[in-house]
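request received
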Amino acid sequence: MQAVKYARAESVEEAVRLLQEGGEGARPLAGGTDVIVQARERTRDIDLFVDIKHIPEVVDIRHGADGSLTIGAATPCYQIYGDDAIAERFPILVDSCSLIGGTAIQGRASLGGNLCNSSPAADGIPSLIVLEGQVEIAGPNGRRTVPVEDFCTAPGRNVLGSGEFAVSLSFPAPAEGSGSRFLRFIPRNEMDIAVTNAATQLRLNGDGSVAWARVAIGAVAPTPLLVSDAADALVGRPLNEDSIAAAAAASRAAANPIDDMRGSIRQRVHLAGVLTERTIRQAAERAA
Amino acid sequence: MATEHIVVNCAINGESQTFLANERDSLLEALRDRIGLTGAKEGCNNGNCGACCVNMDGRIVNSCLVMAAECEGSEIRTVEGLAMGDQLTPLQNAFLEQAALQCGICTPGFLVAAESLLEQNPDPSEHEIRYWLAGNLCRCTGYDKIIKAVQQAAGQSVV
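response:
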């Protein structure tokens, strides 16, 4: 491990100050399941961890009276999938949180950490995108909000500036008749990094046509992608073989993956289509 | 850079402890090198193998992915805290009876993880056991014997 220091922040303001004073080498410490490995293996230059887990609004779950949801950025995965109201109204977050690492990872890892690590293959981000998630960021100039789909800028990079960190993630209430689903393809059942992943949230009209939809895919581009063309292929049309095939084709067209040890370009493009189709069907089952 | 020492106060296996650690130490390093509890093992040191699994404030964690400094005020339980003197837990006995270990490196992590499962879910299905333990790797047993040991400890009939 490089000679990394540790500081515990008790408030958002203190965390911002510590991060700003720490400069380039300072990183927020949430669950640490990525960032501690990066410090140890020196894949990131880190000389100060600012522990943000003792700031109440960074580790809590708040359900709004209007059905909206705010999750502290460092709230561990097990608390998210253990929350009955989330399981009922935002089941896609349970899909993601129960697939990130194994049980011991889920005891620490958070959705905010998954987002800020900004891996193209992150299993949390497509779900946050289709839920229309907004990231609340605190920094030296106060607070700002960024839509999740605009947060990541390149593998391992995002819009956070000096002294900034993610405080929480907020989601509007899913409208009546909505359903959401996240799926990941890996060669085994658990504990692996996505070859490709996908998420869909949609809302059905009484006549079975699609009123609203959002589709996102991951591990097929430098950042997780919101695929507007896939949603456009669904909205206003009956949910049937044709519209689902058109949405899957839109995801294949949007995919721009690399070849690596986990999968080839051809396989990933194919999977983007398959997983888009399956998440649409399964989101629709949940909407029913 | 000069090594910074820090003082950490926490409870380990029910006893309050104050120990000195390097600021860069992981909990695993602190347990093994500062406190002398060598039950938790260093396998991969990057969160993949589960050999360093301990219970922190009621949840299992990979102690290689926790900074020692984070443990201030925490309650840590390690494999050393399972047995009462010579009295093994039902799970530990089941591991022996089912021959659920060979080289033994993964065993402390499996025991801590499986005890935590049985605390939360006293009658888990085979699928639930396998899913819960997916973050613990064993290269000797092929897992079946470990699963059977957990089933035995849960009072289930083991074929």
